Amino acid sequence: MKGQVGQFEDQDKPSFEGLSFVTMAAHEMKSPLALIRQLSLMLESGSVDEEERERMLRQITLTSERALRLTTNLSRSARLEDSLFELEPLNPQQICEEAAHELNPLFKARGREIRVALRHRSMLVVANRDLLRRIVLNFGDNALHYADSDLPVELQTSSWDRGSKVRIGVRDYGPALKPDIWRKLRTGLGAGTQTLHARPQSSGLGLYVAGQFADAMQGQVGATRHKDGATFYVDLMASTQLKLL
Amino acid sequence: MTKMPHVLIVEDDEWLAEQYVRTFKGGNMSAEYVHNALAAMDVIELRLPDVLVLDLLLVGPNAFTLLHELQSHVDLAAIPVILCTNSADQLADEDLKMYGVVQVLDKASITPDDLVAAVRRVLL
Fold first, then answer.
1. When you count CB atoms within 10 A of the terminal residue's CB, does the N or C end of chain A come out lower?
2. Measured over all CA atoms, what is the biggest interatomic distance in chain B, rounded to whole angstroms?
């Protein structure tokens, strides 16, 4: 994979500069709630035709689902230390297919496409199904809102480090990250303002949570900068189960 | 017949931008939207809006980049700007006046009527 790579090390994780986790979470929830409210107020006024009404209702549903994914991730993240997560050999390609299927209605409604890159050789990763699914969904959400291109967002799996690790990445196409934004990305998952992918309206909290989920599976999240977009990925231990067959 | 005021919306959430367009059209104004500051400059070159409704945090260059650019041209500096943001509580109106910002609206609490009223006030 060509590009500039940034891994988010433990020491790089955000402190949110004194802001509480709750404050950051509240800020993150504002955008979807503000949109839902505006759409609802317009529907209440009754000044839209039937076709527009249907479209707005669909937007409310999809925006609510996105917000709920975030709240569920946050509550899951808060309980991470108290929980034991079962790690099992999983097919990452299948997880990507499931995530793409779940995100497809949202992408379609936004006039975008999400797809899974074909891979002929099977591999297994040691992971928790729910946490890995949430990481991929999170990266997918991120790509939808911050990529700026008609090209599809692609979920990719690859083997690396001589087969000892598996990388599951979400590649988006859009404006290149500016060097200063990239530096910020590499030195912390956004302490408060413009962060990943020059992300507006975002504290980087979603990606911070993805990092926590990866930690719980002894994995690591990171990003690769391309000329025309970015890949956000999680690296996890490969399962050797297939090699024993 | 009086000319219909034209509003340019700079908002990176497409669905929210569409909602603003609906709102302004319902208030007998013409409106169009773009997603980022660079596209805004392109559109402004083609047609000067009567009012600019601007989100603060955008993909790529943020609102202040656009405001600086506008302020560096005499004709563009005169475009009144309404900042519509989720971070309204963190901004001081006084500091923004030098950027041509005439009002700051809180996305989380405005109603569609507030938005139309804000633009009408600016145009008075």
1. C
2. 41
Chain B: residue nearest A196 by CA?
B59
Total domains in the fold of chain B: 1
Region B69-77: what's the mean pLDDT? Answer: 92
What's the half-sphere exposure (Cβ side, CA atoms, 13 Å) at B4?
11
Chain A nearest CA to B78, separation (Å): 27
Size of interface A-B (CB pairs under 8 A): 63
| A17 interface with B at CB cutoff 8 Å | no
Using an 8 Å CB-CB cutoff, list chain A residues near B22.
42, 48, 52
In a domain, B1, yes or no: no
Residue type for A233, please? Answer: Y
Q: Hey, of B21, B35, B38, B57, which one would you mutate to test binding to chain A, going by the most A CBs within 10 A of its CB?
A: B57
Domains observed in chain A:
4-16+87-244 (3.30.565.10)
Q: SS3 for A224?
A: strand
Q: What is the mean pLDDT of chain B?
A: 91
Residue listed under structure tokens 């955000």: A14
Q: For A162-183, give the DSSP string.
A: TTTEEEEEEEEESSPPPHHHHH
B60 or B69, which is more confident? Answer: B69
Of A186, A107, A109, A199, the residue nearest A154 (C-alpha): A107
Q: Would B50 be classed as within a structural domain?
A: yes
Query: What CATH number has the domain bearing residue B52?
Result: 3.40.50.2300
Nearest to B86 among A34, A48, A174 (CB): A34
Residues of A in contact with B34 (CB under 8 A): none
Each residue's pLDDT tens digit, A21-45? 777 778 788 889 999 999 999 999 9
Q: Where is average pLDDT lowest: A53-67, A70-84, A152-166?
A: A70-84
| Residue B27 lies inside a defined structural domain of this protein | yes
Chain-centroid distance of CA A100 in Å reads: 12
Contact B57 A33 (CB under 8 A): no
Rounded to 5°, the CA angle A28-A30-A31 comes to 90
Distance (Å) from the C-alpha of residue B59 to the closest C-alpha of chain A? 6
